[in-house]
Amino acid sequence: MTTNQNDRQMITHPILLEARQIAPNQILINYDQRTDLASAMNVSNYWIRSNMDRPAGIATVGMSAALTAANAIRPDIGMITPADNTNMRFVMTFIVNAMSGIMYTVLPCFVNLEGRSGYRGENWGPFSRNMFIGR
User: Fold this and answer.
1) Smallest Cα–Cα separation from 92: which of 38, 25, 39?
2) CA-CA distance, 31 to 131, in Å (whole number)?
3) Which of 15, 46, 102, 125 is deepest in the core (most CB within 10 A)?
């Protein structure tokens, strides 16, 4: 076994690989491993941070605010659906468009691996490409 395989076995949760805007009101997100659909499709397990002091466009959190249940994405402003049957790719759709020129950061938490439950941490890492500029 290589070191990389050992490291992967120690990770007990999916990591967000990439988030990118695919339409004015949609983001495609990709995880590195198959997810538990219930936790991955719970829109309240996601936050979008903007680089503004206050949330702008699709953002629920401003630059310096902490992530709380109160500022997670709510079902009345966005939803998340599978992009295919891999349990790794999802499309987030919002009722408003991302604002052009604003930097957004997608911050998922509490998303479990397929067949597991109970993970209570963040699902991004130092190599996650979870930022994009609204267009």
Assistant:
1) 25
2) 14
3) 46
Distance in angstroms (rounded) separating the CA atoms of residues 99 and 103:
9
Architecture per CATH, domain 3-116, reads as Sandwich (2.60)
CA–CA distances in Å: residue 65 to residues 43, 47, 121: 19, 11, 17
Cα–Cα distance for residue pair 61/55, rounded to 1 Å: 5
pTM: 0.90
Distances in Å between the Cα of 106 and the Cα atoms of 3, 8, 35, 47, 101 are 29, 22, 17, 6, 16
How many angstroms separate the CA atoms of 102 and 111, rounded?
26
Provide the pLDDT confidence category of residue 2 given band limits of 50, 70 and 90: very low
CA distances (Å), 14 to each of 35, 108, 111, in order? 6, 10, 7
Three-state SS for 95-127 is CCCCCCCCEEEEEEECCCECCCCCCCCECCCCC
Backbone torsions φ then ψ of 126, nearest 5 degrees: -65, -20
Instruction: State the average pLDDT for the chain.
Output: 92
pLDDT above 90: residue 12: no
